[in-house]
Amino acid sequence: MPIKNGEQYLQRINDNLPDIRIAGEQVKGNISEHKAFKGLMGTQASMYDMQQDERWRTSMTYSSPLTGDPVGLSFMQPKTKRDLAARREMMEAWAYKHHGFLGRAPDYMNTALMAFSAASGLLEEKSPQYASNLRKYYEYCRENDITLSHVFIQPKAGRLETFLRTFEEPAAARVVDKNKDGIIIRGAFLLDTQGATSDEILVLPAPFPSGGAEDSPFAFAFAVPSNLPGIRYVCRESFVGGESAYNYPLSSRFEEMDTLVIFDDVLVPWDRVFICGDESMLFKLVDESRFHTHASTQIMCKNIAKTEFLLGTIETMVEAAGLDSHAHVIEKVTEVIVALETLKALQLAAEKGASRDRWGSMLPDRRPLLAANAYFPKIYPRMIEIIQIIGASGLIMIPDEKDFDTEISGQLNTYLKGIDLDAKGNVQLSRLGWELSVSAFGGRQTIYERFFFGNSSTVNNRLYNGYPGREAFKKRVKDFLS
């Protein structure tokens, strides 16, 4: 099937029913009705509905190169600057639907898979069958509107440092056997966001270093259905506070579940294998596909939508508290404005500076995107801190919605109202600020943004080593001095 709607998304995930464990229990029945997943899946269903809404359809889809049927625009390999702009507008529409709180909305992995498939020529000489597998899998996902999750990271127990310290057999995920049907994978991966609410999972972890071996059991890439026998998803604690959109305006809608994915001798069919054993090729595919650059275009849409939402929240809080004439408050609000305009400028610069890459893709200028990837993890915690400072005690004094349906509602309206805002509306605003900056949901969002593309050293190194202008600037200074 081509593009799906929200009902079809819910039905497919419910029918999928992988092995999901949460709070000591295995999930049974419809996942979409479970309190930990219901709000997220409802939001994501509404996003898929946009694809078939006549108001959005032409801006969210394009014609399949294979069938001519409408498929999701985020799957498209952009070949012109007009393509880039069209993809951005589609991604903006989804980002404004979830206000930037879905770090792994479907268009993220659609974009990543497109980048890997476009660069499948890297595999052609040494592994033509793997190259064909990757292209066919991309087509399969595009033509069937597959909702995809992914894992790139292994638990600490599976990393080299642990092996060197304990001298034990590494717990790193690995190929333990091969047969005529496929490869057998044993190990675990994190952090699979939306693993429980996706059709399939793409596994492409950084390999356990083995000196560049061409037959390393720790180097592999593949994709499989989420419910393949032997795969288990162990969920963290759910941060959904409750179903009330008044009490929990964010977590009731946007709580993405993160999972530890355990592969217990899982058979991965050969036609789903993209790399097996070649450590250098695995690194090469990630680097030369320009995955980070393509994915960053989607991330920019998310981050801009999120920053606009934070700015709107802060401005509303300032207005309700009558703080708009205080210089120190204005200074803090302008920090957020500067952050927003900086992100928009970097997005525009990346798109305007795009050029065709070796794979025929119109690749955005990576320099502004690398800068944005280093900037946002630093400014996001500061914006959350500004909400805490402006909200102050109002973020703590947040009675329940039910309190306003009792005999004390009159007293609450006397003592908890804001400027031009009754008590119930003012508390609702405070509860929004609380979910953003104090709650477990808000804390997870801050951690997620801090480490979205890796720790600060990884992101900074990517910027430093990927920034091509440094040598020219040094030469300019040396010429000046001479």
Account of the 3D structure:
50% of the residues lie in helices and 14% in strands. It is an alpha+beta fold and 482 residues long.
Low-confidence stretches: none
Terminal CA distance: 66 Å
Query: What's the rounded overall pLDDT mean?
Result: 94
What is the number of strand segments?
14
State the strand order across the main sheet: 2-1-10-11-7-6
Largest sheet: number of strands, sense, barrel closure: 6 strands, mixed
Radius of gyration: 24 Å
What share of the residues does DSSP label as strand, in percent? 5-15%
Tally of individual helices? 18
The 3D shape can be described as: globular
Structural class: alpha+beta
Helix content: 40-55%
What is the secondary structure topology, with strand pairs?
Blueprint: H1 6-16, E1 19-22, E2 25-26, H2 38-52, H3 57-60, E3 61-63, E4 70-72, H4 81-98, H5 106-118, H6 121-124, H7 128-144, E5 148-151, H8 160-166, E6 174-179, E7 182-193, E8 200-203, E9 220-225, E10 231-235, H9 251-254, E11 258-269, E12 273-276, H10 279-288, H11 291-321, H12 327-352, E13 355-356, E14 362-363, H13 366-391, H14 409-415, H15 423-437, H16 440-450, H17 456-466, H18 470-481
Parallel strand pairs: 1-10, 5-8
Antiparallel strand pairs: 1-2, 3-4, 6-7, 7-11, 8-9, 9-12, 10-11, 13-14
Helix pairs in contact: 1-2, 4-11, 5-7, 5-11, 11-12, 11-13, 11-15, 12-13, 13-15, 13-17, 15-16
